[in-house]
Amino acid sequence: MDDFKYVEECLMAAGGGDGKFQKLNIFIIMVSTAGLQGMFVNAFPFYSVTPFLLCKENLDDENEEWTRCTREQACGEDDSDFNTFKVDYSHPETITNWVTDLGLLCDPNFKRNISFFGFSLLLGFFTGSLFVTPLLDIHGRRIVNIWSTICMIISLTICFSTTNYWVVLLSIFLTAVAMVARYSLAMLYCQEFTTFEFKSHIGALYLAMMAFANFSISIVFQLCQSMRF
Questions:
Q1: Domain limits, the chain
Q2: Nearest Cα to 182, choosing from 124, 222, 113, 136?
Q3: With contact defined as beta carbons under 8 Å apart, do 69 and 98 qualify?
Q4: CA dist., res. 137 & res. 140, Å (int)
Q5: What is the pTM assigned to this prediction?
Q6: Angle, vertex CA 167, rays to CA 165 and CA 169, nearest 5
Q7: How far apart are CA 132 and CA 152, in angstroms?
Q8: Rounded-to-integer distance, Cα 204 and Cα 182, Å
Q9: C-alpha–C-alpha distance, residues 43 and 63, integer Å
Q10: Which residues of 70-83 are buried (b: 16+ CB within 10 A; e: fewer)?
Q11: b/e for 186-206, b at 16 or more Cβ within 10 A?
């Protein structure tokens, strides 16, 4: 008998390929992978957005009011007369993120440093897809899943706790590598848990989880105004 048909028959006998077991496990897998991955990746614009700033010409002049200013004005990159600035944390759209915590606001290479956040993420995805995903077939799923989960937990913890720019980049890279391994394994399990008839539902559920992550992360940043929620 063809292996594909045999697997299909076994799944049908175990609940029709769309039973409670499949639904529960696929939902748990999607929440722990697509949901968490979406919460991290889709929030990237918030991690590096420039905060709102307030500037003054004379810090010692108590009668002078703080004035809204741009990053270029605050850092003296144009012909403005401002001599000091501060982050306007009272503004509803100001977020405590890597720009504020790593002291990147007035860095001469501000734009390049910000671009490296996204570059590290994409490089991690590329590296994970090229080198880590094949390990699932070489060393087995269990060991790859365990180590990728441990790696992701450690790198995420460091990523949101350190104030060293280069450590943040390395943490982003390792997180992305681990995410690729966990996502590949999760999709593989989900595809194996159900029959061919319901495999399209897996993709729909994944998109639904990513959409929910987008919605959730927007609400969280609106309430907390910090990436360390």
A1: 3-48+103-224, 53-87
A2: 136
A3: no
A4: 5
A5: 0.78
A6: 75
A7: 13
A8: 19
A9: 40
A10: bbebbbeeeebebe
A11: bbebbeebbbeebeebbeebb
Q: Which pairs with CB-CB distance under 8 Å and at least 24 residues apart come from 199-205?
A: 201/18, 202/26, 205/26, 205/27, 205/30, 205/34
Instruction: Please check whether residue 83 is in contact with residue 56, taking contact to mean a CB–CB distance below 8 angstroms.
Output: yes
68 and 94 in contact (C-beta within 8 Å)?
no
pLDDT tens per residue across all 229 residues of the chain = 556 566 566 656 655 556 666 667 677 777 767 667 777 877 888 888 888 888 887 766 677 788 888 888 888 777 676 778 888 888 888 888 888 888 888 888 888 999 999 999 999 989 988 888 788 778 777 788 788 888 888 998 898 888 899 999 999 999 889 888 877 777 777 777 676 666 677 777 777 777 777 777 777 777 777 766 5
Q: Which residue, among 105, 101, 123, has the nearest Cα to 113 in the 3D structure?
A: 105
Alpha-helical regions (H) of the chain: 3-13, 20-30, 36-41, 44-47, 71-74, 98-101, 110-127, 135-138, 141-159, 165-193, 199-224
Structure tokens at 218: 């927007």
